[in-house]
Amino acid sequence: MTASPAHGILHRVPTGMQTLAAARAYYAEAGSLAAPVTATALDKPVGQWLANVPKDGGLGKDPERAARRAAQLAGIHPYWRPAWPVDP
């Protein structure tokens, strides 16, 4: 679980195929993966997950798996990792 510092809410952050499916669903609806931390898709906290993935180890500690996950996110949208802050 991760805590959302702005909201003090605990989230169970899903992994694997569920998170990618949620990211695809969010992108289909919003046209971007620059999701606010509170965003959900398919009843998953996709915004929290997308906020965590740019952090060290956010895509996994295994470098090959992390590279594979980054490629999968880039397949959804090439700018999945915005250089600007998403939340105010």
If you had to describe this structure to a student in words, what would you say it looks like?
The chain is mainly alpha-helical and 88 residues long. The protein has one domain (2-76). Helices cover 40% and strands 7% of the residues. It is built from three helices and two strands; from the N terminus they run E-E-H-H-H. The chain has helices at residues 17-30, 46-52, 63-76; strands spanning 2-4, 9-11. A two-stranded antiparallel ribbon has the order 1-2. A hairpin with a 4-residue loop joins strand 1 (2-4) and strand 2. The longest helix is centred in the N-terminal third of the chain and has 14 residues, at 17-30. The radius of gyration is 12 Å and the shape is globular. 24% of the residues are buried. Residues 1-6 have low confidence and may be disordered.
Please render the helix and strand layout as text.
Blueprint: E1 2-4, E2 9-11, H1 17-30, H2 46-52, H3 63-76
Antiparallel strand pairs: 1-2
Proportion of beta-strand residues = 5-15%
- The total count of strands amounts to 2
**Could you tell me how far the N terminus lies from the C terminus, measured between alpha carbons in angstroms?**
23 Å
Radius of gyration: 12 Å
Query: What's the story with the biggest beta sheet?
Result: 2 strands, antiparallel
Structural class: mainly alpha
Topology as H/E string? EEHHH
| Structural domains: how many | 1
Mean pLDDT over the residues:
81
Low-confidence stretches: 1-6
Q: How many helix segments?
A: 3
Characterize the overall form: globular
Helix percent reads 25-40%
- Going across the major beta sheet, what is the strand order? 1-2
